[in-house]
Write a structure and sequence with these properties.
The complex is a heterodimer of chains A (about 80) and B (about 575). Chain A is an all-alpha fold and about 80 residues long. In chain A, helix 1 crosses helix 5. Chain A is about 60% helix and about 0% strand. Chain B is globular and about 70 Å long. The chains are: A mainly alpha (about 80), B mainly alpha (about 575).
Chain lengths: ~80, ~575
């Protein structure tokens, strides 16, 4: 997948979760500032990433789930390693 | 509701931009705190407002006044019996006013330190020098373990001096020795502490031992309780020594654990100075009901990112608003309960106000009607719910008066349409702690191939097991580290099991529904469904609460019979 496709999929995911307003969100909008995300939603996001992109995330990766853009960076870093 | 885990970093430039003075704000806040001091102490009885006599003698409205003639409040400090409740509250509000003014006007780099000093002075005043020394001693030990400053660090002598002072407390400083003898003992212990640290502890922290020393200090409360319970059981003694200075540290178990989690996740600077470390744990906001809700506001990163996170005047005014809400809920609680009891009296249910009353009646062979059972259940729930709301708003309000833009503890729980939502809205910080400390480790290690089982087990670990461990620990810290207390607390296992299974099953359902999930409170005729969902959610929560409050002279079976009778099964 290209970076743009990954970003699109991530943005769709957050929109589906009702966590972002389509008209207001941008990829670098901090999740914790304007989006309705909490610790359990972080874990739902982990499950989504693991299933959708076949990743294995660790605890230290959770801190990187800060914005759609950061999530994309995390996905690309993890997939390039594997 | 906005941010929860607050991963986003706030830098000092943002904080400086938020540090704009509006001189009317300090005037308003200090005036407000003076008004609270008047309402919550004997000042109100000394200078009564108009119609005070009529109000206090009113059969319903009079309930908002205490026996001492001020507005009811449950703000107090445990074990500070040398200072009256009034004195404690005056001290809390005085510290809050001074701390607020310093935070408001001092430059950014000096805002947090005065709060630590004020807190130390308050502990000294309320609980004595021994308590302060032990409290600081534990935190210095935790700091040395977490951050392992180099033996060449120029501040190390200060850290070790604090530790040495704690080592001789309470035997030396609080009892018979002269101050000179105490100082001599500390002076001898100081070089010994240095040798021990530089040549034993520090090398250990540089090696593999760090992997168990750091969790060891983070969970020292649990270790202390395990040792205490074992000791009292083996030696058949009544209770294990619980100096208040130790308890002050152990009561902060959640925040120490959260600090450790932040440290492991790389969210705490390795070279953080001791004062900055202490600022995570020592602010006057920890005083009111300080062994309650000590988890507010989680660990270092959350706290640090919340400090001056928006315009400071907005933060301080929101703190005033939350404390106003707290005063309101403290007052409304006895009114609501009184009106509820009047209603129950009218229904000839005045003899049933506690679970124990119902059990006594049922033991006598009479099973009350379902409606009567629910009256008792709701009355008991409201009694705690309103108190919890008031204390939670007070705590968060105080934190905000010190510049921390933290989330409300209560987030409109009456809008929760399922148990997962209620868990978050009813006890936000507690839920976050349980998720970080119990959910994450299980979720990231177990059942990765089976998503539903993974979620179920992780949720159960947090909402069931973690919840039980927390309450077990606090019962032991509060009542004593004895097997009797453990056995008593273990009687509540059905409550945590039912609650855990309920939340876990709901979480699995919600994740399975995924994008098909309907967002509640979006208007239309389905609002009726949302209201029903709220009633069902609270109904479940209220129904299982008798398992959490099984009186000593009753059994789990009594609680079970009560719960079954409430759903019409006799």
């Amino acid at each position: 997948m290209t970076r743009e496709e990954v970003l699109q999929r991530v943005m769709e995911y957050f929109a589906d979760q009702g966590a972002i307003r389509d008209d207001a969100a941008s990829p670098d909008t901090p999740l914790s500032d304007t989006l309705l995300i909490d610790s359990l939603m972080v874990l739902e996001t982990v499950m989504f990433l693991e299933q959708e992109f076949d990743l294995q995330l660790e605890r230290s990766d959770l801190g990187e789930i800060t914005s759609p853009e950061a999530v994309v960076e995390l996905i690309l870093r993890k997939t390039s390693k594997s | 509701m906005s941010s929860q885990t607050r991963y986003s970093q706030i830098d000092d430039n943002v904080r400086r931009a938020n540090d704009r003075h509006r001189h009317w704000v300090p005037c308003l806040v200090v005036g407000f705190l003076l008004a609270i001091a008047y309402l919550w102490t004997e000042w109100m009885a000394l200078f009564p407002p108009p119609a005070m006599e009529w109000l206090s003698q009113h059969p319903v409205l009079g309930k908002i006044f205490s026996d001492d003639g001020h507005l009811v409040t449950q703000s107090w400090m445990h074990r500070s019996s040398d200072v009256s409740d009034h004195g404690q509250r005056r001290l809390l509000l005085f510290l809050t006013a001074i701390g607020f003014l310093l935070v408001y006007y001092l430059p950014l780099q000096f805002k947090k330190q005065p709060l630590v000093i004020l807190t130390c002075l308050a502990v000294w005043w309320l609980l004595g020098v021994a308590a302060l020394a032990l409290f600081l001693g534990w935190h210095v030990l935790a700091y040395l373990t977490f951050h392992a400053p180099s033996p060449r660090n120029r501040w190390l002598a200060v850290y070790l001096a604090l530790l040495a002072t704690a080592a001789w407390t309470p035997h030396a400083l609080a009892n018979a020795d002269t101050p000179l003898a105490s100082l001599l003992k500390v002076a001898i212990t100081l070089p010994l502490s240095y040798v021990l640290y530089a040549y034993v502890y520090y090398p250990l922290l540089q090696g593999r031992a760090r992997a168990w020393l750091q969790p060891g200090i983070a969970h020292s409360s649990l270790i202390y309780i395990a040792i205490g319970v074992g000791w009292t059981s083996l030696n058949e003694v009544d209770a294990f020594l619980q100096p208040i200075g130790w308890l002050l540290f152990f009561w902060q178990w959640e925040r120490v654990v959260m600090y450790h989690i932040d440290l492991k996740d790389g969210r705490v600077p390795a070279d953080l100075p001791l004062f900055q470390y202490l600022a995570t744990f020592l602010t006057p906001a920890t005083f009111s009901n300080f062994h309650w809700l000590s988890r507010i506001p989680l660990g270092y990163s959350y706290l640090n990112n919340a400090f001056f996170a928006r315009d400071k005047n907005q933060i301080f005014l929101s703190g005033v608003w939350l404390i106003t809400l707290s005063v309101f809920f403290f007052c409304i609680r006895p009114l609501v309960l009184k009106l509820f009891r009047l209603g129950m009296d009218a229904l000839d249910l005045g003899h049933l106000t506690r679970y124990g009353d119902v059990v006594d009646v049922m033991r006598a062979g009479v099973v009350p009607e379902v409606g009567a059972m629910w009256c008792v259940l709701i009355y008991s729930f409201l009694s705690f719910y309103l108190l919890w709301t008031a204390v939670a708003h007070l705590k968060v309000g105080l934190w905000r008066l010190f510049g921390y833009d933290i989330e409300p503890y209560f987030q409109k729980p009456f809008l929760a349409t399922n148990l997962v939502e209620l868990w978050k809205r009813y006890s936000y910080y507690y839920r976050e702690f349980l998720v970080q400390a119990f959910y994450y480790p299980v979720f990231l290690r177990c059942f990765r191939k089976s998503p539903r089982l993974r979620i179920f087990v992780a949720t159960l670990a947090a909402a069931g097991f973690g919840n039980l461990v927390y309450h077990l620990m606090y019962s032991c810290l509060y009542y004593g580290t004895t097997m009797e207390i453990v056995a008593r607390e273990m009687r509540t296992v059905p409550y945590y099991l039912l609650l855990g299974v309920g939340i876990a099953a709901t979480q699995v359902y919600l994740v399975a529904r995924g994008r098909k999930r309907r967002r509640p409170w979006t208007g239309g005729w389905k609002t009726g469904l949302d209201i029903l969902a709220v009633m069902g959610t609270f109904g479940f929560f209220i129904l299982i609460r008798p398992f959490h409050h099984v009186p000593l002279d009753e059994s789990i079976m009594d609680a079970l019979h009560l719960v079954l009778a409430a759903v019409g099964i006799r």
